[in-house]
Amino acid sequence: MPQTKLIFFYFFHGRHVAVLASGLTKESEIPPAEIDRAMARKRLFEQDPNGHSYEETEDSRPH
Prior knowledge:
Number of strands: 2
Structural class: alpha+beta
Number of domains: 1
Oligomer: single chain
């Protein structure tokens, strides 16, 4: 059975948070556009971490 290879681009924010910037299945070479997309998302996050974050609270959980 063929295996699917998954590629994830991530970076760390502080010491306790990993941010997933992009993910894809790898079929051959990684397209440069995917690397550019992940880097752009990293820059956007770094400009406004709170605006690009989600923190679950007691009120935000489904009842």
